[in-house]
Amino acid sequence: MTTASLPVSPPASLRGPFRLCLAILVMATVTIIKGAMTTSTNSGLAYPDYPLSAGQLMPESSYTTLSGFLEHFHRLAAASTGLMALGLALWLYYGRRGNRQVRRTAWIGGFLLLAQALFGGFGVLLKLPAVTSVTHATLAQLTLATFAWLSYQLSDRYRDTAPLTDVPPGAGRKLALFALVMLVMQTVVGALARHTNSSHALWTHVGNAFVVFVVATIATAFAVGRLAKAPGVASVARWIVGLMMLQIALGFVVLAVRDPAGKAAMTTDRLGTAAVISTHVVIGAALTVLMAVLWAHVHRATRREGRLA
Ligand code: HEM
Ligand code: HEM
User: Which of 71, 114, 91 is nearest to 21 (CA)?
Assistant: First the structure.
């Protein structure tokens, strides 16, 4: 994301929470990278217990084996993200920072993280059935998008965006929301392909990529065309289209390098393959974040004073 889309100098009262929220975004992304590597190396059951790992807080195998390292440090990164999110929600609430919407978004983010821990933990205890793994993978992206939305609400850009009263709110908002929903669906189908190895899900995911691309291009072109006066729209739109082209190209590489037997056949010996697939997962998350920010920004720029101020 560029400084044009998320400026870094909010007023004093929100500067701290804004920075903490950016730190949460970074930590959540690290957690997602480790989670994606855990799945891509089939290390999810390195420890069969939860919340402890092999009955300990810091088992030796978490720094002497790769599968133990990935799974255990994924748990630790998740716990750090959760603690930071709790800190932010309490800071906003007891420090009376931001408005009600900001505080509500912070709690929603916190609850999503709690749900992540439950789906992750129960997934392990139940030996990773597809239903918990697919839900866990999808919620990860929704969680990240929620904290991106919160960062946007805490930023200067949010407060400085003047309402464009000559632009009707309808179509731009609906298109951006539709593109966001299509992207999330793309993740759900990708996660189904990943965790069930269903060829039906896999080819639906490949075909739907082109539908998502067309919808996202229309949504971004519309936003840029109609909201050119709202700063930041053009750069977010450029990032979305650029990353989506990269993601589709990378998708074909993933298709070529992944094991036809799916994640069950993956091991820590094929780290390069795991890294390629995990990059596809992380770019998917970045796209969800950018689309959520675009939607929020279009919403903000087309608000009507008095109703959504
Ligand atoms: C901040 C919270 C968390 C986030 C954002 C997160 C994110 C992720 C992501 C993105 C994946 C990869 C999914 C995929 O590539 O399909 C993953 C995998 C996994 N996560 Fe988490 N996770 C979180 C918390 C936890 C916790 C607390 C546990 C506790 C055990 C956990 C256990 C797992 C396991 C076992 C996998 C591998 C699943 C499989 O291969 O089926 N996660 N996580
Ligand atoms: C709009 C473009 C796309 C997006 C946003 C996207 C996103 C994703 C995401 C998020 C996942 C993992 C879901 C999870 O967390 O478990 C995934 C999996 C996958 N994607 Fe894509 N994808 C796109 C296009 C493509 C294309 C064009 C291809 C192939 C030509 C492709 C091939 C795959 C494959 C093979 C997997 C499963 C990997 C595995 O089995 O481990 N993707 N995709």
Answer: 91
Mutation to probe ligand 1, out of 27, 30, 34, 38 (largest number of atoms < 8 A from CB): 38
Q: Which of 223, 229, 145 is nearest to 183 (CA)?
A: 145
Residue ranges lining ligand 1, Cβ < 6 Å: 28, 31-32, 35-36, 38-39, 44, 50, 74-75, 78, 81, 113, 116-117, 120-121, 123-124, 128, 133, 136-137, 140, 143, 191, 194-195, 263, 281
Backbone angles phi and psi of 81, in degrees to 5: -60, -45
In the predicted structure, residue 210 carries a pLDDT above the cut 50: yes
Taking the CA of residue 143 as centre, how many other CA atoms within 13 Å lie in the half-sphere pointing to its CB?
A: 26
H helices within the chain, ranges in order? 12-40, 61-64, 66-94, 100-125, 130-154, 156-160, 170-196, 199-226, 233-257, 271-301
Residue among 300, 283, 262 nearest 183 (CA): 283
**Of residues 157, 146, 170, the one with CA closest to residue 288:** 146
CA distance 90 to 106: 9
pLDDT tens digits, residue range 79-124?
A: 999 999 999 999 999 998 989 999 999 999 999 999 999 999 999 9
Q: Does the predicted model carry a pTM greater than 0.90? A: yes
- DSSP symbols for 210-250: HHHHHHHHHHHHHHHHH-TTSTTHHHHHHHHHHHHHHHHHH
